[in-house]
Amino acid sequence: MSGEPDALAVVNQLRDLAADPLNRRAIVEDQGCLSGLILFFDHPNPQVVYSALLAVRYLAECRANREKMKDELGMMLSLQNVMQKATSPGETKLLASEIYEILQNSSSTEAEQAEAAASCRRKAQFFLGGTNKRAKTVVLQIDGLDDSARRSLCEEALLKIKGVISFTFQMAVKRCVVRIRSDLKAEALGTAIASTKVMKAQQVVKGEDGSEIVIPFQEDSDVVVEQNMNLPDYLPEDESPSQEQHKAVTRLGSMQDGVSWLSTAANFLSRSFYW
User: Fold this and answer.
1) For residues 15 and 7, is the Cβ–Cβ distance under 8 A?
2) What's the pTM value of the predicted model, to 2 decimals?
3) How far, in Å, CA of 175 to CA of 140, rounded?
4) Beta bridge partners of 166
5) What residues have CB less than 8 Å from 66, skipping those under 6 apart?
6) Residue 49: is its pLDDT beyond 90?
7) Most CB within 10 Å of its CB: which of 9, 203, 249, 273?
8) Strand 135-143 relative to strand 164-170: parallel, antiparallel, unpaired?
9) E strands within the chain?
């Protein structure tokens, strides 16, 4: 294997860094990272495309980033291409559509900006990168996740659970992707969402054939939800990022800019963030 960085590994690292609200401004302000993510919207590996989109979706949660992201060369056109591409998976098209709508309607009131800033401050107290080896990811399909008010209720419920590391919402498909400690049962998330009285969660898993299966949580579950009484600044995290050794390196053919950007992004990660 050559010494070139793995496209999926680099994009995943940027995605995980973008999940932390404290990193989002730095990533967008960097000269190469945002343009590099856009470049990978057209990557032949659908996992790279989805991971790049998810990273951009995280970045778009910071309202201060949106105008710059919208004006970035190729951003809106590339999102449209993903949405219209016949080979794009349905979930990828929905995510691209959600990002496009957010950036297209990037103007907002001062009240909305204040609310977003407060939300970022709350989340910054417990968000981690995606490299914690003692963590697992749970995808929730949430019935009733219809608007920002319901989302806030959901956030508050998840914030109270001891063992939740981070989460992100995909409002277009009424889903929440939650990273939790490996010793926390997924049923605890379902119990917490049900405690809102207006929403109900089900778990989304992959079947053997790759299709999605939605599994309801037991309504009479006796799982005890241990709550955070005093949130620490950060939960403990392993310093070494996990590597997906089974993923093959995908070359970009004649897209030499993409190959060179991988090295640029890898250098950006190493010089700008502490793992």
Assistant:
1) no
2) 0.45
3) 5
4) 179
5) 60, 102, 103, 106
6) yes
7) 9
8) unpaired
9) 135-143, 164-170, 175-181, 200-206, 212-216
pLDDT tens profile 77-92: 999 999 998 888 888 9
Residue 147: count of CB within 10 angstroms of its CB: 9
Decide if 224 contacts 163 (C-beta within 8 A): no
Give the type of residue at 253. Answer: G
Helix (H, G, I), strand (E, B) or coil at 60: helix
The encoded tokens of residue 233 equal 């600044």
Rounded mean pLDDT, 26-32: 83
**Domain boundaries defined on the chain:** 7-106, 135-223
Instruction: Write the pLDDT tens digit of every residue in 151-191.
Output: 989 988 888 888 888 788 888 888 898 888 888 888 999 99
Give the distance from CA 254 to its chain's centroid: 29
Residue with structure tokens 């319901």?
150
Q: What CATH number does the domain located at 135-223 have?
A: 3.30.70.100
Give 202-249 as a DSSP string.
EEEEE-TTS-EEEEEPPTT------B-SS--S-----SSPP--TTSPP
Instruction: Measure Cα distances from 183 to 7, 14, 22, 75, 187 in Å.
Output: 31, 26, 27, 40, 12
| pLDDT at residue 210 is higher than 60 | yes
* C-beta of residue 153 within 8 angstroms of C-beta of residue 198: yes
DSSP secondary structure letter of residue 161: B
Residue 200 pairs with which residues in a beta bridge?
143
Q: Which of 133, 169, 136 is nearest to 151 (CA)?
A: 169
3-state percent helix, strand, coil for the chain, nearest multiple of 5: 50, 15, 35
